[in-house]
Amino acid sequence: MNQRRRFTPLSLLLLAATVPAICAFATGCQKSHAAEAPAGPPAGEAWLTAQQIKEGNVAYTAVGEETVDDTLVTSGRVTFDDQRVAHIFSPVNGRVVRVDALLGAHVKRGSSLAVIQSPDIGLASSDVGKAKADLFAAERYYEVQKDLATKGATSQKDLEISEDNFRKAKAEMGRATQKANLLRAGGAAASDVSQGYTLITPLEGEVTMKNVSPGVEIQGQYGGGTPAELFTVGDVGRVWVIADVFESDLARVRVGAKAAVTIVANPGKHFDGKVEWISGVLDASTRSAKVRCAFDNPDGQLKPEMYATARIAVEERKALALPRSALVRLGDQTIVFVHTGTLADGREKFERVPVTIDDVEGSKFVPVLYGLEKGAKVVTEGAARLQAAM
């Protein structure tokens, strides 16, 4: 038989007073335990114990000014040495009757490139003959007038006219002779029988461009109009690399400084040369100046119009810089880990910080442009351990 417990009014009052106290005690206990339980690190931070730091070989150092940037890295383009390349045009109008040099052929200085049949050659020879005859006649007439003048048998006016005609004939003879000599120096036949003009190369090298074929009619340089370039002959034993240097770096580049280039065709090889010339003007659109570097190229691996990566030795400078080992690449972002303090339980706090750097290839220290201040403690070893802990 069940018995119901009956509560007196006094017992009900005591129970009402006790329940809130019990609830408050329970709530206090929960708050105490919650305060003791440490919260996890926020996004972008890692908290490591001393044991974890030791096992992960995590080391950090304060950022300061370092000697950086003793090499300037920029882009460039391989070109001919101006003194070792010839752009060859025809001085005469005519028809190409023979081509003696093929594309890629190695030619000696004075070698025939092509033969052009031109009426200009015969005309030049004819002009010389006519000028010679006119000069002979004018000279004889002038001598006669001088002789008559001494005897008083001619007027002073006739003497002066004959002298003037003699001088004109002499000048015309000089002009015709110079033109004929110019054509002969280029390869024209010495006689007026042949009208062939031999196009020759003024230097030794390789035929890198040929824009002519037998039977083609060509325009000459002395005939007016716009003549076409027929051959390019160049010596690639010594070439130039024209590099672009920004205005901010230009003051540290010196003539005579060492330079080295690499090319896509042979990325593992460095070609050594030196700076020969620095442009005195800037490109208005890129704010950069042209810097010419010269390179010996005996095996011909540096070919004109190749793109190259140029490294120019420059004066060192001081800047806020990081050891290269401190950098971590996350996609297109560069970050570092900074030690930001110690928790109450002894764990060390590390924060992930994005930075902007001036990445100088080959330099031990990398200049920091934005993201850090001097004295910040940056992780230089064990960054992978920190990244895994986030």
Provide an overview of this structure.
It is a single chain. Residues 1-5, 9-15 and 21-37 have low confidence and may be disordered. Among the domains are: 45-69 and 318-389, conserved putative lor/sdh protein from methanococcus maripaludis s2 fold; 72-82 and 235-316, Efflux pump adaptor protein, beta barrel domain (Elongation Factor Tu (Ef-tu), domain 3), CATH 2.40.30; 121-194, Helix Hairpins, CATH 1.10.287. A hairpin with a 2-residue loop joins strand 19 (328-330) and strand 20. The strands form 6 sheets. A 6-stranded antiparallel beta barrel has the order 4-13-16-15-14-17. The protein has a 4-stranded antiparallel β-sheet with strand order 1-21-20-19. Strands 3-18-23-22 form a 4-stranded antiparallel β-sheet, with no helix packed on it. The longest helix is centred in the middle third of the chain and has 33 residues, at 119-151. The protein is an alpha+beta fold and 390 residues long. Helix 3 packs antiparallel against helix 4 (156-186). Helix content is 28%, strand content 36%. It is elongated and about 130 Å long.
Summarize this entry quickly.
With 390 residues, the chain is α+β, with helices and mostly antiparallel strands. The chain has helices at residues 9-36, 50-55, 119-151, 156-186, 247-250, 383-389, and strands spanning 45-48, 59-62, 64-68, 71-80, 85-88, 94-99, 106-107, 112-117, 196-200, 205-210, 217-218, 231-234, 238-246, 258-263, 266-278, 288-296, 307-313, 317-323, 328-330, 333-342, 348-354, 356-357, 365-370, 377-381.
Question: What secondary-structure arrangement, pairings included, does this model have?
Answer:
Blueprint: H1 9-36, E1 45-48, H2 50-55, E2 59-62, E3 64-68, E4 71-80, E5 85-88, E6 94-99, E7 106-107, E8 112-117, H3 119-151, H4 156-186, E9 196-200, E10 205-210, E11 217-218, E12 231-234, E13 238-246, H5 247-250, E14 258-263, E15 266-278, E16 288-296, E17 307-313, E18 317-323, E19 328-330, E20 333-342, E21 348-354, E22 356-357, E23 365-370, E24 377-381, H6 383-389
Helix pairs in contact: 3-4
